[in-house]
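Subject: two folds for Thursday's group meeting

Dear M.,

Sorry for the delay on this. The cluster queue was jammed most of the week, so I only got both jobs back this morning. I'm pasting them in the order they finished. Each block is the input sequence followed by the predicted structure tokens. Could you check whether the formatting survives your parser before we put anything on slides? The first protein is the one we discussed after the seminar.
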Amino acid sequence: MTTIVSNPLKGKHIVLGLTGGIACYKAAELCRSLIRQEATVQVVMTDSACQFMTPVTMQALSGNTVYANQWDARIHNNMAHIELSRAAHAILIAPCSTDFIAKLAHGHCDDLLSALCVARPAQVPLLIAPAMNVEMWQKPATQRNIRQLIDDNVRILGPGEGDQACGEVGLGRMLEPDQLIAEMLAAFTPKSLAGKRVLITAGPTFEPIDPVRGLTNLSSGKMGYAIAQAAYEAGADVQLISGPTALNTPYGCIRHQVQTAQQMHDAVFDRISKQDIFISVAAVADWRITNVSKQKLKKNTGDDFPKLTFEQNPDILAEVAALSRPPYCVGFAAESENLIKYSTIKRLKKNIPLLVGNIAQNTFGLNQNEIVLFDDKGHHSLPLADKTNLARQLIIEISHRI
């Protein structure tokens, strides 16, 4: 039986460093989010950070003693910078101020957090989330320091762009906690798709009947979006073509919004020539209505019902697979019965190397799924799991095949 991979942060010990800045308020939610990912969190704060967020708050959220003094006698031999860095799987500084960036770039270590960063073993990654005013971010000195940190293999997360606490607008905002979690997950994920370009379709399509009605299905898009996120974590350049969903764009992915099957077809073929992998997860309508009304159809009494006529939509996956130089194609089959029989037939008919089968009523709209992989060797199951972790396992399976 295949082992389902869990999230990459499970069991990891993260040193979360806070420096002075209003973005410290985001560190509270970030801390909780890391713990929800089953990581343990050790908070270290600078004196300036303590002006914005109290150690008591961070201790309550992390469940661990917060350290702010490099001479803290609670640490063995008063060597907090050694003890804390040796226990870490990674050090994340969020928020990371302009001043602290300068310290890191020049190797200064006049407080616990900077000393801890300088003293960390080479195998412990250092990640920073800059947070500052737009003018401070753009200054040549700051940009020189950032370039130096990149050369020193420090990973720079952000910054984001938008409204700032000072009232100005521009680059310099600390990334949001969910974005930083996505970056941390990616940092601990093997880059099995590094350098690969992946195009994914997800969600339902919507075929209009009139300006306010249409035909669609129960697909939520959750599986396709989870696969897009997992592909990004694995190092791929990901583009997502999505039908109508209520989901946020997976972090790090480029999203193209469509509505109908024909629009999805056109969006795929606008981009497919540059892709290495195509994963067709979307629940695409098999038919579209040919006599779409330009005005809302009115309800009449009696037996005078609207007469709808249909024509078949293009088979996006089959057309991609039939290209002279197709990318590696992965299809999805959502069946209501006879999963093994129908999925085997579908894979052969579409002439694709890998097809993922599932029972539609057991997956649409749900957070868990159970899938069966069909290839030239036959089929095998990936057992019931959270769609996020199942998507990570599928990406591993694809990386082993390409």
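Second protein, same layout:
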Amino acid sequence: MRSSDYRKLKVWLKAMDLTVEIYKLVRLLPKEETYALSDQMRRAVVSIPSNIAEGQGRNSDKEFVNFLSIARGSLWELETQIEICERLGYIDNVTKSNTFLLTAEVSKMLNALSNSLMSKV
């Protein structure tokens, strides 16, 4: 039986770090993006640790894997939005690259956990 405390999952902790970084990043965006790109980025990034936590609370590893897949989709959505920010000149390439290092780490951790759970199913 797996632990029910999602707060101990390294991937959840790393996703929380990513959430904080994105909240800092969206403060750099112009005011006209407050209810557009900024809002979308915040929703996408919050979805990542939220789905990890919700999946951990489900009854089966199969359900957990499904929520990890949703988290991964939100992560890729976020990466697309970061790319848009850079293309629009809201952030520089260094900021994008540094943020992508963190998203890549979360992605690897999501994949590893998902693969581990799938091997049990």
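Two things I noticed about the second structure. Residues 6-120 form a domain with the de novo design (two linked rop proteins) fold (CATH 1.20.1440.60). The first helix runs from residue 10 to 26.

Cheers,
T.
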